[in-house]
């Protein structure tokens, strides 16, 4: 069977890059910054026959202020340093529609409900959807900077609801969960 990567024999025609950074603030709050950059790597033509040069097509940023538990979006802003059309910035304020949204199960669907389609910008919506997991990773990374006591039960395991059944490794009856349960049982035995 031929592997797909073995079929690639030419230079790419398009590239999309997503970048995320998380910055700590006071009071367990964070700013999560996400960038989306689309670049056309070959020249082409617009629908009307005009030529399209290579270069950046979309370059935009969303910043989310998040905090609390569950992690909740407290504020949002967007900017578009490079866009394909002068009207694109009219969608910037649409990101305010996600203020108050918690990053929990159903987050992606709720972002699409609030911002999707004609309610916002498809690229900002995509960026915000992908920022949800990045915000959680940033939150857990910041919290992990301080040693904390081992939870006494799964109920005390902050973020467990975001992990269970999120992938094959976090299957509710899988190896990760078995290891966690065994560790909690050992810890309980030490505390008795």
SSE topology sketch:
Elements lengths: L3 H4 L6 E11 L5 E11 L3 E2 L5 E2 L2 E13 L4 E11 L24 H9 L6 H22 L16 H4 L11 H17 L1
Antiparallel strand pairs: 1-2, 2-5, 3-4, 5-6
Overview of the molecule:
The radius of gyration is 21 Å and the shape is globular. It is built from five helices and six strands; from the N terminus they run H-E-E-E-E-E-E-H-H-H-H. Helix 2 (107-115) runs antiparallel to helix 3. The strands form two sheets. It has a four-stranded antiparallel beta sheet. The chain has a two-stranded antiparallel sheet with strand order 3-4. By secondary structure, it is α+β, with helices and mostly antiparallel strands. The mean pLDDT is 93. It starts with a helix and ends with a helix. The chain has helices spanning 4-7, 107-115, 122-143, 160-163, 175-191, and strands at 14-24, 30-40, 44-45, 51-52, 55-67, 72-82. Strand 5 (55-67) and strand 6 (72-82) form a beta hairpin.
Note the run of SSEs as H and E: HEEEEEEHHHH
Number of distinct beta strands: 6
Q: Which stretches are poorly predicted, pLDDT < 50 over at least 5 residues?
A: none
Tell me roughly what share of residues is in helical segments.
25-40%
What percentage of the residues does DSSP assign to strands (E)? 25-35%
**Strand ordering within the main sheet:** 1-2-5-6
Terminal-residue CA separation: 57 Å
Total number of helical segments? Answer: 5
Coarse shape: globular
Describe the main β-sheet briefly.
4 strands, antiparallel
Gyration radius (Cα, Å) is: 21 Å
How much is the average pLDDT? 93
Structural class: alpha+beta
């Amino acid at each position: 069977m031929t592997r797909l990567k073995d079929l690639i024999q030419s230079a790419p025609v398009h590239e999309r890059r997503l970048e995320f950074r998380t910055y700590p603030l006071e009071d367990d709050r964070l700013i999560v910054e996400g960038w989306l950059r689309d670049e056309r790597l070959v020249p082409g033509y617009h629908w009307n026959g005009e030529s399209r040069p290579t270069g950046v097509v979309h370059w935009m940023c969303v910043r989310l202020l998040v905090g609390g538990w569950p992690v909740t979006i407290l504020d949002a802003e967007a900017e578009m340093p490079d866009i394909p059309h002068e009207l694109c910035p009219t969608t910037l304020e649409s990101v305010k529609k996600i203020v108050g949204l918690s990053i929990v199960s159903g987050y992606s669907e709720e972002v699409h409900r609030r911002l999707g389609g004609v309610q916002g910008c498809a690229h900002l919506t995509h960026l915000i959807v992908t920022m949800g997991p990045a915000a959680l990773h940033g939150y857990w990374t910041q919290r992990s900077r301080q040693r904390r006591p081992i939870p006494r039960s799964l109920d005390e395991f902050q973020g467990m609801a975001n992990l269970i059944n999120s992938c094959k490794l976090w299957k509710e009856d899988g190896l990760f969960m078995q290891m966690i349960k065994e560790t909690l049982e050992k810890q309980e035995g030490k505390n008795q």
